[in-house]
Design brief:
This protein has 91 residues and is an all-alpha fold. It contains four helices and no strands.
């Protein structure tokens, strides 16, 4: 899995759904460190469903050499891939 996608996902989970102005107020020089909290109350570095979907796609492409939308729907509909350490219902 591309490291940049994982890092960006973990950093971005702190500010997902916030406006640019809200982010600038909270992080004037940008997000520089992983931290607990955010919209989904994740722990620092915890992957979200975005990273899980990326991993699913990469595994499919490596295994089959092509993208299969139906197989993706079946795999992604089985919830619970991302550990939910926060106790919230979000991933």
């Amino acid at each position: 899995m591309p490291l940049g996608q994982l890092a960006g996902d973990a950093l971005g989970s702190l500010v997902v759904f916030q406006s640019r102005n809200e982010i600038r107020r909270s992080f004037p020089v940008g997000i520089r460190e992983l931290a607990d909290d955010g919209t989904w109350n994740t722990i620092a570095g915890q992957p979200t469903d975005d990273s899980e979907m990326e991993l699913l796609l990469e595994r499919m492409l490596v295994k089959t050499g092509s993208y299969n939308p139906e197989a993706t729907r079946k795999k992604s509909s089985s919830k619970g891939n991302t550990p939910n350490f926060s106790g919230n219902s979000g991933s």
